[in-house]
Amino acid sequence: MRPGRKIVQAVATAAVALLFFCGVSSAADQGNSGGPVPIKMPIHENEFLLGKETKGVTLKAAENTDLTLRVRLSPRIDAGDLIKSDEATPTSYETESDFYLRRVRLEFSGHLAKNLTFNVILRADTNGQAPGKTKNTPSFLYAYGEYKFADTLSVRFGKSKLPYSRVSLTSAAAQLFIERPFSTEAAKALFDDYYQPALLLQGKVAGGTVAYAAAVADGFEPGGTISGNTVQKGGLLYVARLAVSPPGWVEKGQSDAHLGRGRHLTLAANYAAQSGIEYRGNTFEEDRSLWGADLSGHWGGLTAQAEYNTWKEDYSNPALIDKKPKGWYAQIGYFFPGVNVEPAVRYEVYDQNANATDKKQKTITAGLNWYLRGHNVKVSANVLQTKFDRSATGFLANDDKQNIVQLESQLYF
Q1: Which pLDDT score, from 0 to 100, does residue 137 have?
Q2: pLDDT confidence of 227, banded at 50, 70, 90?
């Protein structure tokens, strides 16, 4: 099937889904009023076609004790250069499409006491995604408790994100684009798992103009696999992040898409390191470290941010050359109230290894978000093109570019 036809089919499928969502909303309004209700376009950023944005269902058991339940589903369609040619050594990309559930989440959060909170999230992501039509067994994404002594200090213990990379720390539910940048996704794997049990201290001072987070975790553990070797043991992983904002520009809830509300300007930096990761069966070891910085801001409907990360894998084995990937991206979007759409564009450069030549990939992404009920119900479309240098992973003899169209809806209640 020709590429153009597959893309048209994918767009048509998404259009049918949109009509279905709107039809359900219209039918519900008719049933409540006893007659037809004309569909009115929102005239303010807080008014959406399917109603006001909500934050789940909260059950109150006692004073300072409650439970909030939320469900998130993200049906997804990808089309374009998804597979490689059927050859011993693939030489080109071939057009294919893939329908799957990008995210399936069940969330439990709340208070056990006045300052003691908990958060547990079960996930079964990428369900039905090629290759192999993945059928994921649900697993814990988050599972932690946190006690807040004061605004200046909270202590969290359990499984959650490591505190580095703004775009990675921001919930996928509030992203400007369907997927995060390639470089930050690669950086998340540097210490085995971005989501891991840790002891984390965090807080804000001076009215939130200065915020910090510091964590200690296992990183790579005995029995894990690193650089083709089995880990014998490793030192602790240390992570720290510091963010500053001018007075009056402190962000109220981290998001890539604030839907026209408020303003913020934040400059942040982070560092992470794990040393002495020893291999089983030989005397070699390696150290890993990362540092990065990001600048983000929004003012009404305008939102923008940029981020840079560089990391290093330092090997004691003289037969191996140290690896040093790095990457940066810049993105901008504008939310139009009334129609509640948000076009956006992002440019990214990811150098898969700065210690080697011709290892860069450059990606430009154009996106459009339509908010039917804020982040509760939205539909997103992204078109991205990635160009690979000759020695970069992804480069093929007859293809140095990869073109993909992504369509995703989010249902989050």
Answers
A1: 81
A2: confident
Please state which of the ranges 127-136, 311-320, 388-397 shows the lowest mean pLDDT: 127-136
Q: Given the structure tokens 């049933």, which residue do they identify? A: 31
Cβ contact 274:237 at 8 Å? yes
Q: CA torsion angle for 77, 81, 87, 91 (degrees, to 10)?
A: -170
* Inter-residue contact 323 to 353 (CB < 8 Å): yes
Q: Let me know: does 289 contact 272? Beta carbons within 8 Å.
A: yes
CA pair distance 368, 390, nearest whole angstrom: 31
Domains of the chain: 3-412 (2.40.160.10)
Overall pTM > 0.70: yes
- Burial (CB < 10 A; 0-12, 13-18, 19+), residue 165, is buried
Cβ(173)–Cβ(72) below 8 Å: yes
Check residue 167 and give its pLDDT: 98
Q: What are phi and psi of 218, to 5 degrees?
A: -75, -35
The tokens of 385 are what?
């093109």
Percent of the chain with pLDDT over 70: 88
Please report, for residues 102, 175, 181, the alpha-carbon distance to residue 75 in angstroms, rounded to integers and kept in the order given. 6, 16, 20
Q: Any idea of the CA torsion for 192, 196, 199, 203, to the nearest 10 degrees? A: 100
Average pLDDT, the chain: 90
